[in-house]
Amino acid sequence: MPTPSSLDGLIRKASLYLNDECVNRIKAAFEFGAQAHQGQTRKAGGDYIWHPVAVAEILAEMQLDQESIIAAILHDVVEDTPYTKEDIIERFGENVAEIVETLDIYAPIAARLGINAIRIELEDLGFKAMHPLRFAVLESAVKKARGNRKEVIEQITETLENRLKQEKIPAHVIGREKHLYSLYKKMKNKRQSFSDILDIFAFRIIVNTADECYRTLGAVHSLYKPLPYRFKDYIAIPKSNGYQSLHTVLFGPYGVHLEVQIRTETMQEVSEHGIAAHWQYKDGHKNGEHALSAVEVRAQEWVKNLLEIQQSAGNSLDFLENVKIDLFPDVIYVFTPKGDIITLPKGATPVDFAYAVHTNIGHATVACRIDKQLVPLRTPLESGKTIHIIKGKEAQPNPAWLNFVTTAKARSQIRHFLKNQTAGAANSLGKKLLTKALRTYNMAYDGLTELIRLEIADALKLQNWDDLLAEIGLGNRMAGLVAKQIHDLLLGADDAVPSKPVSADAPLAISGTEGMVIHFANCCHPIPGDSIVGFISTEKGLVIHRNECHNVKKIKNQPEKMLDVNWEKEQHATYLAEIQLEVKNQRGALATIANEIAKNKTDIERVRSEDKDKTYSVMNFVIAVHDRTHLAQIMRVLKRVPIVEKIQRV
After folding, report:
1. What are phi and psi of 612, to 5 degrees?
2. Contact 528/571 with Cβ under 8 angstroms?
3. Which CATH number applies to 575-649?
4. DSSP 3-state assignment of 349?
5. Helix (H) or strand (E) holding 508
6. How far from the centroid of its chain's Cα atoms is residue 225's Cα?
7. Strand 562-567 relative to strand 508-510: parallel, antiparallel, unpaired?
8. Where are the beta strands (DSSP E) in 253-297?
9. What is the pTM of this model?
10. 176, 330, 194: which is closest to 259 by C-alpha?
11. How do the domains of the chain map onto residue ranges?
């Protein structure tokens, strides 16, 4: 049980790297915490304050900054005592207050951060709590087998040390046992027996320099034969959390396998204490500042990404959903055109790569080259490839990307962008719809004063006017019904809303640039020049169909959701249209048609081909066009292709 001596240990460890001013603040935090928790005890006995002090001592061992240590001492004050967050801000600053009450360090996050000691403790404690019987059986089996294993480990350790002395490499060899959860996980995942797992011995060799790491590797490979395909060089290409080491598996004596890790003292420190080992804080570090190495910069990138994800997530559940896919990735290593290495989880795509480089690059992505070859954006990346992202000035994230991106950063940033864009687009469309609906009651939108808008929003139980417009734009409220409510609310009011000399029957103009709240129906693919009709759909907003679409008949059964729409004269967007061709069966027919479409600077969105009979195939292409004139031009070109028998718009 922690005792007052724990405080002495905390102060001693903090004094090794923090200046006197910082240490005095830690002492002040202890005095405040002890006073706050006065009279509270742990279930196991003893004053409550010694639990937070023990937590703080662990952080001091990792050489975290003074604010983290103070937050550890005070981490239960707001929850369990009369003191508030404001009290902590007043005494110790806002940073400390924001850190207090957070419980985000789970075992997988500790692993991702490289905090090995905490990870092992959390995993074994979690294993014991979740599977107490399995834990007890495995613990007992390990104790029984420990005697013989100890002798083998000592013998192999001595052999390794002697070999390194012959090579004149100063080294420290540590023979170690795997912790219980690691053994359990290996037995479960690889479906191996306990005896098979115990035949694997683990050794760590600590040397002075990276050069000695590679010399040591050569020495142990000359002593014991390496297993093929089991060597990993995390020194040349560190893990994204900054971890560096050489890993190899050897055929050892007595038919056992030896897992060997070779690293420097610095690498060992990072392995045990993770990213925290990289950080030297300006506020009170005795050794002063130092320039961050490339490895240290990369180690901090993941934490920065974590903060970006947290800031863009809607709530804590969204945050956890986003980060959990990043916790245990099988990684790949790809290169930027400048030769920088980007680490990504296996299965990552060019879009994931773009967001890993920078959020703005991700947002602007339009295409990708892998080793100079154009590829679809959903292509899984492979290690060793060079990735070149092609950006567009007017480009923006595509909702379809969410179907194939794999990294938390890409997923969270795409969702964040689309959420904001949808809100703005819904607001704009809602204004257009309400303006049109108000004309039915001889009212003009511009005549609604700020005071009137506030009164209307309050009467409709909404926070503000923009919320009302967004509700209309998203289809959650009908513009006609809202216009009637506004008319009824203002009926007889002194500040009557003037009308405008505009026909109430004027159709709503569609420009194609309204964003996420106007959808062009996939059943009929309307394009400028088509006669169209609008349908208000809950959450989808306004859905545009061609008048002759077979689905319009169903829509007409809900006239209150129908809306007259037409196309604006100036069109700058592209739209999808579907064409169907009957072509003669011959080698390369599909490529011939696709090539002709590409010559007209038209993108192919989707293609489907199937045999009609022995002579002909039917091909359906969904292509991007500007309007009916552009589509007609493409169809004329395709009709002149010799293998094309028939062509029509679907």
Report:
1. -85, -45
2. yes
3. 3.30.70.260
4. coil
5. strand 508-510
6. 41
7. parallel
8. 257-264
9. 0.42
10. 176
11. 4-103, 415-506, 509-567, 575-649
